[in-house]
Known about the structure:
Distance between the termini: 19 Å
Shape: globular
Radius of gyration: 17 Å
Helix content: 40-55%
Low-confidence stretches: 1-11
Oligomer: single chain
Mean pLDDT: 86
Strand content: 15-25%
Amino acid sequence: MSNARSTVQQAVSLSRLFYVMGASGSGKDTLLRLTRPRLDQLPCLVAHRYITRPPELKGENHIFLSQSEFLRRKALGAFTMSWEANGYWYGVGQEIDHWLSSGSHVLMNGSRAYANEAARQYGERLVPVVIDVSAAKLETRLTERGRESAEEIDRRVARAGAMRADIPANAVWINNDDDTESAVLQLLDLISSYSRANPATS
């Protein structure tokens, strides 16, 4: 029994929160959408985000909440992380703490602006992952999606460049300029590298 308990404790200590960041237009949503169905052989669950923005057909598969419902849940402690950006509220539920404490990895769509606070909360368990694209590719993708004006696109591209300096030094960088499949494989390999060290998955 003691050996079994030790194995479980070791698995829990090795569980990681893969905190994926990237500028709007970097292809982060697409990358996570393509990665999700390929996690079935890995001890990793994908966190849902709760957002006060209505869902879009090609956008993130998030859970939509009205602002009043979001703030009520926030006040009741339903979120382990929450932040406001671009006029919307974003939250990640307390369920991910249960998953981590059960020995599972967690893959989540994070915010660059919240990265330092997330690192403070989760310490060495947090693995920062940056989905990186060139400024030219970012501008093209934002233009094609048609959600922002030309002025808003310019501001987003400039902000993306400025925020590179704030990325944690231990972040893993994944380039997503062209080959999304390559980016997916890099992300899967990163998760696999931690899973191979986890005795609960051997």
